[in-house]
Amino acid sequence: MRILVVEDDTRVAAALGAYLRQAGYTTVHAYDGATAIDLVGPDTEAVILDLGLPDMDGIDVCRRLRGKTGVPIIIATARSNVEERIRGLHAGADDFVVKPFDVRELVARIEAVTRRARAQPLVSGDHAGVEIDGVRIDLGKREVTVQGAVVELTPKEYDILAVLARYPGVVTPRERIIREVWGTDWTGFRRSLEVHIASIRRKLGGATRLETVRGVGYRLSGGS
């Protein structure tokens, strides 16, 4: 598996690269945002992205990478405040770790996001699409439209909505969403799920109700 490590600290990049290679990965390093955007390609299977880059803000790099590719992006940052994490997820990141982190946790997160990326689209028999009050979720094309207009969702936002669309009107537990979207049972993804849900609600507007069922999960139902 080829991983692009975007890190301007040469010592950190070398240590991280050595550990990832020991774990069986092939690594490529970029020490600034422009190089990272140039290096990401069809053979890249994951990106580890530092936010403190010398030429541009890492959030902007994340946004530009997401506009170019659907490859999983994990933000690795010393910025521990929640707002920065939310900005990263809104920019298209799939996950984040806060420095200093245990590299074993990073490897576990890499495995989780890449396992989900390799999974087949959620298509089942004749139910290749779901429509609720003008919101069309095409599970074959991985496309969402509202009254015929395409809504731009990140890959992770789409995956979450697709899981909920399979059970319209039914409460889907958080654990099931995390298991199907992130490929893990680890509850540490709950905060990421909440951030993505908030973003989906904003993008869909009032077209569809994405309801929170306290203590359980979420339910997709028609708008008012």
The count of domains is: 2
CATH class of the largest domain: Alpha Beta
Shape field: globular
Beta content:
15-25%
Poorly predicted regions are: 119-127
The number of distinct β-strands equals 12
Pfam family, one: Response_reg
InterPro entries: CheY-like_superfamily, OmpR/PhoB-type_DNA-bd, Sig_transdc_resp-reg_receiver, WalR-like, WH-like_DNA-bd_sf
Organism: Leucobacter edaphi
Protein name: Sensory transduction protein RegX3
Topology:
Blueprint: E1 2-6, H1 10-22, E2 26-30, H2 33-39, E3 46-49, H3 58-68, E4 73-77, H4 82-90, E5 95-98, H5 103-118, E6 129-132, E7 135-138, E8 143-146, E9 149-150, H6 155-165, E10 172-173, H7 174-182, H8 190-204, E11 208-213, E12 217-222
Parallel strand pairs: 1-2, 1-3, 3-4, 4-5
Antiparallel strand pairs: 6-7, 7-8, 8-9, 10-12, 11-12
Helix pairs in contact: 2-3, 6-8
Q: Mind explaining what this structure looks like?
A:
With 224 residues, the protein is α/β, with parallel strands linked by helices. The protein has two domains: 117 residues, Rossmann fold; 94 residues, Arc Repressor Mutant, subunit A. It has eight helices and twelve strands. The strands form three sheets. The protein has a five-stranded parallel sheet with strand order 2-1-3-4-5, with helices on both faces. It has a four-stranded antiparallel sheet with strand order 6-7-8-9, with helices on one face. Helix 3 links the parallel strand 3 and strand 4. About 4% of the residues have low confidence.
